[in-house]
Amino acid sequence: MEAFSYIFDSLKLFALIACMVLLPVLFWSVTVWIISLFGWRSLAAHYQTQESAPAGTRHFCHMWVNRWVGYKGALSVGMTPKGLYLAVWPITLEIWHPPLLIPWSEISVSGETRLTRRFSVGKPQVATLSFCKGLAGEIEQYLRG
pLDDT per residue over 20-71, tens digit each? Predict the structure, then answer.
């Protein structure tokens, strides 16, 4: 009977540890999935890429998609003659956020605020992307050719 009690106690400890590990992972996965529904998914439907990050890609950048979701410090941004490359941190967000390569012909300036500049993506519009003015200036240089 004592062996059964030991096994039962061990199973309870295992279940407790599994819950402590799996519940945060499940919560994070659901959160990231919900975040993807607010714009990245529609962008990925049009501009998903298998290409790796181009040389000179900037990491830890900030961007807002459709003014709803902010990728603050979790974004890599690269610029190539083909277009604007966007990727999120590989382990934490990439599950439902595949890398994007948006052709320059699909991007146009659509407005600005005191701190950011907005770009319209797609014709017809798929999403708006907002960047801090410093990074937005670099993007605009590529847009001008």
Answer: 776 666 555 555 555 555 668 889 889 999 998 899 899 988 888 877 777 7
Asked if residues 46 and 107 have their Cβ atoms less than 8 Å apart, the reply is no
Give the residue from 84, 61, 75 showing the smallest Cα distance to 139. 84
Residue 137 CA to residue 13 CA, distance in Å, equals 55
Specify the fold of 40-144: PH-domain like (2.30.29)
Q: Which two tokens stand for residue 48?
A: 């998903």
The two tokens of residue 125 are: 């519009």
Report the C-alpha gap between 123 and 84 in whole angstroms.
16
Of residues 105 and 19, more confidently modeled: 105
d(CA 139, CA 103): 12
Best CA proximity match to 44, nearest among 121, 108, 105, 120: 121
Going from N- to C-terminal start, the domains of the chain cover 1-36, 40-144
CA–CA distance, 35 with 71 (Å, rounded to integer): 10
